[in-house]
Amino acid sequence: MKIEVKFLATIRVITGESSIELSCTHHDTAVTVIQMLVEKYGNKLRQAIMNGTKLKSGIKMIINGRDIEYLNGLDTKLKDGDVVVIIPPIAGG
Predict the structure, then answer these.
(1) Domain 2-87 is classified in which CATH homologous superfamily?
(2) Cβ distance 83 to 6 under 8 Å?
(3) What global pTM score does this model have?
(4) Alpha helices (H) in the chain, listed in sequence order
(5) Predicted confidence (pLDDT) per residue in 34-85, tens digit
(6) Which run of H or E residues covers position 87?
(7) Where are the alpha helices (DSSP H) in 16-71?
(8) Are strands 19-23 and 2-7 parallel, antiparallel or unpaired?
(9) 53: helix, coil or strand?
(10) Cβ count near 28 (within 10 Å)
(11) Where are the domains positioned within the chain?
């Protein structure tokens, strides 16, 4: 199955891409996506979004418009065609 992952702001700068398509299995979860992304983009991405085994404070992971915090967190299962967005904290004034 295929999912799309979109990157915003500083995450886009780290990856050098606005989005990618990943091939997943029906057993994959949000944490699997993070593992695949870290494998592809390296430790700099891990440091930007992860704090140990959890997302860093302020990092949002959205699946089909819903924050994983209100689903099953990093254990949220993926489905074919899902759109995942990783949003870093954004400051402004």
Answers:
(1) Beta-grasp domain (3.10.20.30)
(2) yes
(3) 0.92
(4) 9-15, 30-41, 43-49
(5) 999 999 999 999 999 999 999 999 999 999 999 999 999 999 999 999 999 9
(6) strand 83-87
(7) 30-41, 43-49
(8) antiparallel
(9) coil
(10) 19
(11) 2-87
